[in-house]
Amino acid sequence: MNGRARMAVVTLALLCLYAIGAGAAVARMLPGRLALLEVAHVAGAPPVTAPAAFPGVTGTAGGPGPAATPAGVRARLAPLVTSGALGPHVGVLVADLVTGRVLYAVNAGAAFTPASTTKLATAVAALSVLGPSARFTTSVAAQLPAAAPGRAAGAPVIVLVGGGDPVLAAGRYPAGDYPQPATLSALAESAARALRARGVRAVRLEYDDRLFTGPVLAPGWPAFGTATNYITTGNVAPIVGLELDQGRLTPSGAPEDRDDPANFRPRSTTPGLDAARAFARLLRADGIGVRGAPRAGAPPPRAARIAAVRSPPLAEIIQQMLTESNNVIAEMLARQVALATGRPATFAGAAAAVMAADRRLGVTGISLRDGSGLSPLDRISPRALVRLVRLAAWSGPARLRPAITGLPVAGFSGTLGPGSFFGPFGPAALGTVRAKTGNLTAVATMAGIAYARDGQLLAFAFMGNDLPRSLGTGPEAALAKLATALAGCGCG
Questions:
Q1: Does the annotation mark 116 as catalytic?
Q2: Helix 118-130 vs helix 347-360: angle between axes, to the nearest 10 degrees?
Q3: Domain 70-132+316-487, CATH 3.60.15.10 — does that match?
Q4: What is the pTM of this model?
Q5: Fewer CB in a 10 Å sphere around the end CB: N or C, the chain?
Q6: Looking at residue 38, what is its pLDDT?
Q7: Is 481 noted as a catalytic residue in this protein?
Q8: Residues paired with 249 in a beta bridge
Q9: Are 205 and 280 in contact (CB under 8 A)?
Q10: Known catalytic residue: 119?
């Protein structure tokens, strides 16, 4: 072996030893509370209770540096909070995620317009009431004749019944999309198989999208015909019990069949009918004739379910909702909470159900008109947002954990990803901040978790209201600076 080869071998050996030693050192440095961010296991989740602190975990920092102090955090954040970049009405709360010790507070109990940070309240409520393994069923019901070998039946009525699946699609999504939704194509294949088994070769199709009821627009949403109407600007679709891809459409008006948060084309105004039309096309492709146009209807009293598909687990749906700030998913899940708790599946019933579910967990300071945060009439305090974050991250009620694992990661994913509206983030925040964002006219908010340089996990809520137009996108950049400052905190 020549000298150069020997040197290469020695160098490689040293690098291996260094890597092993560094890995062991990092393992020793990581605080046990990082387990709080572990993906939830949905089987056998215990009942949710509201913790005062985190049992079995002592101390506050658990990392290489001293614990952050109120004076240290205030010194780091106050200049940014008082700079005017977040407007004249600012709310802030920073607390140790484990103990709940308040480290910095400004108007923490005051009511602020939360924008899409409202989705934290909806996520926690849905997970606590329905459980992370809950699924939503879309089905086909019919009153069919008995099978008659050798004789084709007539054209009975079949009914496509929406079960409020917020991620239902027409056809298979691209393999890289997550979660993979239930599809009408699979439902049509199953229904066609059941129909052929009974000798049925043609049907008349009706659809039932009435699981959710009430007004199409929530209080505070811009009216139809206005330039800022949320449906025509591609932010939301009418909330009904049967819709595809949250009402997102291709330029030709077909269901999009992919998850594209950047699609701000006008949404479908008739999502139930669109789903029925797509289902009719799929039935024909599977050899079942469909006579006439689909129409609204309901299953007859003695109808039987002949086919069904089920959504992904709620845990996966929550993660999609939070990562991309999906308004339709949020509104549909809020209605599912209403149905599960015996309330009307309307905007008012859904908002009341979410507030009641969160209140049972000890979270107050929430007043909602919708489930997504699109309404400027919604109100949440910074204290309530931090409480929701701590509940979801706590090691006890693992069923709430998807409300944390679904949060966007600074510099990497969702509304905190590269080139997003919120940012840019400094190096300290990249990969160490998870947060839900919110913005409306005159509103910019952010709430989540920062893994600080001193080893602490810090829960935070930053809220700016009454923002003047002159600030432009400055408030969103200011929120990123605050999160970066917190992540870089060695604030002992």
A1: yes
A2: 70
A3: no
A4: 0.86
A5: N
A6: 32
A7: no
A8: 255
A9: yes
A10: yes
From residue 64, give the alpha-carbon distance in Å to each of 61, 110, 225.
Answer: 8, 35, 57
Q: Give residue-wise pLDDT tens across range 189-206.
A: 999 999 999 999 999 999
70/390 Cα distance (integer angstroms):
18
The tokens for 39 are 């993906």
- Give the three-state DSSP class for 128: helix
Q: Matching CATH topology for 70-132+316-487 and 137-312?
A: no
Dump pLDDT digits (tens) for 338-355: 999 999 999 999 999 999
- Residue 491's pLDDT band, with cuts at 50, 70 and 90, is confident
Segment among 22-36, 47-61, 166-180 with least mean pLDDT: 22-36
197 CB burial (10 A radius; 0-12, 13-18, 19+)? exposed
User: Which residue out of 116, 139, 372, 375 is catalytically annotated?
Assistant: 116
- Given its phi and psi angles, is residue 392 left (phi above 0), alpha (psi -120 to 50 degrees) or beta? alpha
Tokens coding 220: 């505070």
Residues 6+ apart with CB under 8 A from 361: 48, 49, 50, 124, 128, 391
- For residue 315, which of 98, 117, 43 has the smallest C-alpha distance? 43
Q: Where are the domains of the chain?
A: 70-132+316-487, 137-312
Structure tokens at 327: 């308004």
CATH 3.10.50.40 fits 137-312, yes or no: no
**SS3 category, 41:** coil
Share of the chain above pLDDT 70, in %: 84
C-alpha 165/C-alpha 157 separation (Å) is: 23
- Provide mean pLDDT across the span 142-168: 80
Tell how strand 304-310 and strand 443-451 pair up.
unpaired
- Which SS3 state, helix, strand or coil, does residue 435 take? strand
Compute CA 169 distance to the chain's CA centroid, rounded to the nearest angstrom: 17
Question: Which DSSP state fits 31?
Answer: -
Q: Which of 185, 325, 372, 420 is catalytic?
A: 325
Does residue 254 carry a pLDDT above 70? yes
